[in-house]
């Protein structure tokens, strides 16, 4: 579990400390996710809620891998994209989905650590593998829906110039644009809130362990 704890620290720095992604943190994150995936398959790692959340966290970097591979192939071989704007928006939305999934899963890990530290007995019925899998599944579904909305909004923005002003497409464009803008604002403030909550949780855990 020491290696997995180091992996969690790396992910916390990547998503909840750094203000934006960079090439170094992205490469380290991908390597860390690969190593965590291999480690979780070891018989020495028992099936626990934390392990389930970490496994889902590592799988989220598949979205980053898709974006990185697509950009490397296009740059190396000079492959032209049939719809550069659409593809660029899709790759960006995949990176956004990866960030949101990772932040939510990291917050779940922090919350579980809080329960283990302060309510070990009372929270035992909540901290189950089944609940961890269900939580991970819900997070993936919600973020997938968010990514689909963002991609739809980007697609409608590209095609809005050729649509009649009173067509249903334009009405749907205004609706999806408003919904996407609200969701982006909500995601921004939720990201700030998650950072504050995570800092508070580990602050409480650190001083609790120090007092003991």
Automatic annotation (TrEMBL):
Coarse class of the protein's main subcellular location: membrane
A Gene Ontology term for the protein's cellular component: plasma membrane
InterPro entries in alphabetical order: GPCR_Rhodpsn, GPCR_Rhodpsn_7TM
Keyword annotations from UniProtKB, A to Z: G-protein coupled receptor, Glycoprotein, Membrane, Receptor, Transducer, Transmembrane, Transmembrane helix
Coiled-coil residue spans: none
Domain G-protein coupled receptors family 1 profile: residue ranges: 32-212
Topology term for the membrane: Multi-pass membrane protein
PROSITE patterns xrefs: G_PROTEIN_RECEP_F1_2
GO biological process terms, semicolon-separated: phospholipase C-activating G protein-coupled receptor signaling pathway; positive regulation of Rho protein signal transduction
Subcellular location: Membrane
Pfam families in alphabetical order: 7tm_1
One term of GO molecular function: G protein-coupled receptor activity
Protein name (database record): CXCR3 protein
Species assigned in the record: Trogon melanurus
Lineage: Eukaryota, Metazoa, Chordata, Craniata, Vertebrata
């Amino acid at each position: 579990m020491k290696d997995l704890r180091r992996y969690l620290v790396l992910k916390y720095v990547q998503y909840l400390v750094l203000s934006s992604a960079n090439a170094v943190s992205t490469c380290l994150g991908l390597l860390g996710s690969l190593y965590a995936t291999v480690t979780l398959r070891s018989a020495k790692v028992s099936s626990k809620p934390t392990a389930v959340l970490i496994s889902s966290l590592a799988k989220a970097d598949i979205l980053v891998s898709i974006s990185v591979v697509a950009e490397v192939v296009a740059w190396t071989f000079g492959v032209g994209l049939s719809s550069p704007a659409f593809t660029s928006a899709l790759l960006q939305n995949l990176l956004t989905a990866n960030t949101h999934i990772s932040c939510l899963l990291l917050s779940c890990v922090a919350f579980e650590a809080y329960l283990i530290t302060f309510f070990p007995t009372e929270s035992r019925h909540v901290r189950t593998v089944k609940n961890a899998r269900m939580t991970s599944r819900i997070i993936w579904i919600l973020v997938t829906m968010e990514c689909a909305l963002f991609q739809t909004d980007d697609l409608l923005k590209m095609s809005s110039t050729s649509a009649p002003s009173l067509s249903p497409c334009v009405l749907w464009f205004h609706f999806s644009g408003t919904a996407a803008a609200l969701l982006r604002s909500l995601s921004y403030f939720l990201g700030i809130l998650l950072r504050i909550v995570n800092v508070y949780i580990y602050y409480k855990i650190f001083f609790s362990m120090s007092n003991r």
